[in-house]
Amino acid sequence: KILVTGALGQIGSELVMKLRNEYGRDQVIATDIRKLDNHVTNCGPFETLDVTDSQKMFELAKKYEVDTIMHLAALLSATAEKKPLLAWNLNMGGLINALEVARELQCQFFTPSSIGAFGPSTPKDQTPQDTIQRPITMYGVNKVSGELLCDYYFHKFGVDTRGVRFPGLISYVTPPGGGTTDYAVEIYYDAVKKGQYTSFIGQGTYMDMMYMPDALQAIIQLMEADGSQLQHRNAFNITAMSVAPETIATEIRKHIPHFKLQYDVDPVRQSIAESWPNSIDCAVAQKEWGFQPQYDLAKMTKDMLQKLQEGTREAV
Ligand code: VAH
């Protein structure tokens, strides 16, 4: 059985659905600090859990006899920059609690890192798997520390920890909260709703992105890979595309010709974005566990707009 923390977040909400389809509804225990609206309670086991409560986390893992933990509860980069101490306590406190439960109950363990684990002194183009990591954001400090902590639990205690450095994730189910790459999700929603978008990230700012279906598939593929073949564990570079606001807008215009993009740059999130790579190299993930994204910018844009337009029609 799989325990998922942060199950109501951008990744968690879709990962729980995917895992339940793959392994069975009752094999996945969804947990989140937020309460579940009652309309979704019949989708499978759900428990309220604050990941800083180590006792409750252990009790739930024991009660459901979980053998896998997917730890997604965290504050993202922009929020973490506004509340650095809260971010440290939640991101690192929650992680070590989850790792301790995995150690005590011999669970396999997944938690995501991010391209945010790199900083200004990291090579910016085709960033290698193994390179310098001196991030200048609290989120980045959390992600690098998290990568080291997960490798430590593997080497010291034999916990089967695995992770990926996610790029910005784009989805039409649950919007992200408090990220720097959120502009790349908002642009699609506004294109459908208003035919225009004002971007808080400036023109020419390239970052790696990936469509959510590819992100979910990567998690499952990595977790099902033969551990003896893994030279790396925490965490693998993965990406599907490197884009800037104007490149997304150009693709959107192939479906919504009059779409207008303007800018109102947010200096805080712009400076975070500029400290991250322009593009990362994911050859190691391809080699060690066959990572292969299915969606490029064109295919993702077509699907995003289609799904959002369907949603709008239903809402009408
Ligand atoms: C953020 N969406 O913006 C997250 C992610 C690579 C970006 O870490 O903070």
UniProtKB/TrEMBL annotation:
It comes from the Bacteria. InterPro entries: Epimerase_deHydtase, NAD(P)-bd_dom_sf, NAD(P)_epim/dehydratase. Residues 2-228 form the NAD-dependent epimerase/dehydratase domain. SUPFAM superfamilies: NAD(P)-binding Rossmann-fold domains. GO terms for molecular function: L-threonine 3-dehydrogenase activity. One of its GO terms (biological process) is L-threonine catabolic process. Belongs to the NAD(P)-dependent epimerase/dehydratase family. This is Nucleoside-diphosphate-sugar epimerase. It comes from Oikeobacillus pervagus.
